[in-house]
Structure formats: structure tokens, C-alpha cells
Design a protein that fits this description.
Largest sheet of chain A: 6 strands, mixed
Oligomer: heterodimer
Distance between the termini of chain B: 37 Å
Number of strands of chain A: 11
Helix content of chain B: under 10%
Shape of chain A: globular
Order of helices and strands of chain A: EEEEEEEEEEE
Strand content of chain B: over 45%
Number of helices of chain B: 0
Radius of gyration of chain A: 13 Å
Strand content of chain A: over 45%
Largest sheet of chain B: 7 strands, mixed
Shape of chain B: globular
Helix content of chain A: under 10%
Number of strands of chain B: 11
Distance between the termini of chain A: 40 Å
Radius of gyration of chain B: 13 Å
């Protein structure tokens, strides 16, 4: 099955710093989502981005489907950005299930 | 509009018991998927329901089952609980199972 790997696995930043998280996938995909899981466990949908670039405030994401990777950019990080970031791709043919990446644990220090 | 609602938020059960978790999707969403999250295995797909039919199932034993009602609300049941079933159980809804998914806050199950 498809492999979805994320890097780096852990990241510690000072408040105000910028960061880039990467998601590599081993097979072609027709869409991709980025999620943020906060310390209370809730998964928040950040981007639905099958290709191209999208921006939402301090966050932006780029997916290059032909090269099988996606990037999540966080600018001017804040302590509330802390948590785990997951990318996920759907598999299953006519039906869909999400295959999640390994996650990046981000800690933003004040 | 209301998000995905999961109940209960926390649950403690004893080995051998059974448990039922509930998920109410976003209004109008017909696809509900369930995931198990553990520190060792990460986020793993359990099953997906669409219009009351199970469309896809992950690699979990038969102790894990689910169903979906005509109003799209879904329940999952775990019978004969084991310590390893302790996890955060998340459900997600989408319009038809191929677009962006929205997750609930999860049910944290502890088996003692």
C-alpha cells in the first residue's frame, strides 16, 4: 500500500520563527489534506490541497502531485501552533479511507 | 453549522466488557469514517459508512463493528475489550467520502 512519510518527526521553534513541514507519498494521489491535532486530541482540517498552493493566514500549503510531495509552511509561529501536524491521502478506489502520515510534532516556545 | 459530535468524550471500561461510541456527522454529510489513534500505531482506519452501508473496512478484528442509521449518525462497538484497545477513537464526516473530511473531538477509551 501507499506509504506516507513526514519530516521532520519533531521540531522545536521559538515564537516568531518560520518552519516548513514535508509530506512524501509513495504513489499517485488525487487529493491530500493537512491536519493539526491540538494537545487535546482534536484534529483540525487545515487544507484540502490536491495540487497547487493555498494560503490561510500564516499558514500555506503546496502540493506537487507529479513529484509526490506536499509542504506546509508556518510563518511567524505562535505557541498555539503547537501540536502534531498530519498529512493524509485517500485510498480505496470507489470508496475512500484516509492514510495518515507519521506526523510532525511541533513545539513552539515563548 | 454544527460540527461532528462524538459522545462520550471519555470512557473507562474493564477488560472483557463491550463499549459503544457514537458519532453525529455534519448535517448533510452521508459518509462517516472511524479511526483509531494509538501512540504505537498512529492513526489507523477502522471502517467507513455511506448511506447506511459499510463501504470499506480496515484491518481490525471482528470485535470491532459499526453501523450507520438513516439520519447518518453512526455507532461503533467494540466487544470483549482488551487493554490494547485503549486509544483515541475519532470519527470523520464528509459529503460523499471523497472530499475534505471534518473530524470530531474524539472519544478517549481507557481499558483497565
Amino acid at each position: 500500500g501507499i506509504q506516507v512519510e513526514q519530516s521532520p518527526p519533531d521540531l522545536i521553534l521559538q515564537e516568531g520563527a518560520n518552519s516548513t513541514l514535508r509530506c512524501n507519498f509513495s504513489d499517485s494521489v488525487n487529493n491530500l489534506q493537512w491536519f493539526h491535532q491540538n494537545p487535546w486530541g482534536q484534529l483540525i482540517n487545515l487544507f484540502y490541497i490536491p495540487s497547487g498552493t493555498k494560503q490561510n493566514g500564516r499558514l500555506s500549503a503546496t502540493t506537487v502531485a507529479t513529484e509526490r510531495y506536499s509542504l506546509l509552511y508556518i510563518s511567524s509561529s505562535q505557541t498555539t501552533d503547537s501540536g502534531v501536524y498530519f498529512c493524509a491521502v485517500p485510498r480505496g478506489g470507489a470508496t475512500n479511507k484516509l492514510i495518515f502520515g507519521t506526523g510532525t510534532l511541533l513545539a513552539v516556545q515563548p | 453549522k454544527a460540527g461532528v459530535t462524538q459522545t462520550p468524550r471519555y470512557l473507562i471500561k474493564t477488560r472483557g466488557q463491550q463499549v459503544t461510541l457514537s458519532c453525529s456527522p455534519i448535517s448533510g454529510h452521508r459518509s462517516v469514517s472511524w479511526y483509531q489513534q494509538t501512540p504505537g500505531q498512529g492513526l489507523q482506519f477502522l471502517f467507513e459508512y455511506f448511506s447506511e452501508t459499510q463501504r470499506n473496512k480496515g484491518n481490525f478484528p471482528g470485535r470491532f463493528s459499526g453501523r450507520q442509521f438513516s439520519n447518518s449518525r453512526s455507532e461503533m462497538n467494540v466487544s470483549t475489550l482488551e487493554l490494547g484497545d485503549s486509544a483515541l477513537y475519532l470519527c470523520a464526516s464528509s459529503l460523499a467520502g471523497s472530499e475534505g473530511y471534518t473530524f470530531g473531538s474524539g472519544t478517549r477509551l481507557t481499558v483497565v
